[in-house]
Amino acid sequence: MEEENIITVRNRNLQKADEAFADFMFMLESYLNEKAAAIPGTYCDCKSKELENVVVNVMKELCGRTPFRAEEIRLVSAQYFPDIIAEKYYGVEVKSTKENHWTSTGSSIVESTRDKNVENIYMLFGKLGGKTAEFKCRPYEDCLSDIAVTHSPRYLINMELTKEQTIFSKMGVAYDQLRNASDSIEIVRKYYREKAIKAKKKAMPWWLGTSAEESLEEHTDMNISLWVDNGEYADPERNKRLKAEIFILFPEVVSGNYENAALWLCTRRSVVNFHMRDTFSAGGQQLKLNDELLPFPLPHVVGELLESATLIKNYLLYSDDLDLDISEFRPELMLPNRYEVWLNDIWKRIHQLKPYKRKETIEELGGISLAEWIDRKYTLSVK
User: Fold this and answer.
1) What is the pLDDT of residues 61-89, one digit of tens each?
2) Over residues 145-160, mean pLDDT
3) Using N-to-C axis directions, what is the helix angle for 300-318 and 338-351, rounded to 10°?
4) DSSP characters over 35-96
5) pLDDT tens string 230-248
6) pLDDT tens-digit series, residues 93-122
7) Where are any strands of DSSP class E within the chain?
8) What spatial distance separates the first Cα and last Cα of the chain, rounded to whole Å?
């Protein structure tokens, strides 16, 4: 009686088919290690593409001892992930290093080129840097320790992990759940953001969008530029818009704390500002309100705030353009009355500044509230 092929096995018993693939991968690992040990130097000079061809040929050779068919083992690395597809539903990703360790950079977390039919993937990793090449073959998700960014978020490979050390265990999410999520990058971004906050680090992931496309195209410029206030390279309209966004997201700039705002500018808007303090606070104290002398001077930052106020109001009342950032950095503003919430908060911060160690309030200066200052387009000036 002819032995069943893996598709027949799979149709009858999926678990048994997966076990057959695991056995196949163990045979592949053993074969490569035995050959490498028998003839020192074997495989050590292989480039990545050469090793892929070696692996696919060995798999075809071993098929006779498995339910897999040699004609259904295909090398597809030029077009798809993973590199090798076996019998439509199974795959092998081939990685290697010329160093003498079991770590490397892996594939994109988005897996946009993944063959839609492949459900079960193993990692075949070649450590080619020692006197003798060595190989390990494990389930793909069991080898991924962390995530790093080259041009996009990519997994980091470590072939010696325990299941508790994988990135998925750390994140509390299964590999299949993450790869099938429509917002996979958002899930990862949130994990690293919360990790930084828990460790009290001033750090932000730069790939902040909810998808690969948003992260790398819509929200983050591919070129990093400098914040320039004056001269040929200044961009006044952009700077005005960014100031308004910063006053919404990082109201602590009112009291001179610029760290989070500076990080956000770089990671989210691809803008580096070497003089954040000058941008918000330099230029002297504000002495006049609508050209009328004030009874006491106000910090310069209050004038900057008023100049940004119309844009701030538009963002909070009439636009959702900043909602992704607001949900991340100011979730308390994700409310129908968020403009009023912002006004109350910024008002409290202004009154904590040095000039307010006296009885006068800013309302008494103009006789009206900050909201009315903004609506009437009041301005402050230094002279």
Assistant:
1) 999 999 999 999 999 988 899 999 999 99
2) 86
3) 170
4) HHHHSTTTTTT--HHHHHHHHHHHHHHHGGGSS--GGGEEE-TTTSBSSEEETTTEEEEEEE
5) 888 888 999 999 999 999 9
6) 999 999 899 999 899 898 989 999 999 999
7) 73-75, 84-86, 90-97, 103-108, 120-127, 134-139, 144-149, 153-158, 225-226, 271-272, 286-289, 292-298, 380-381
8) 99
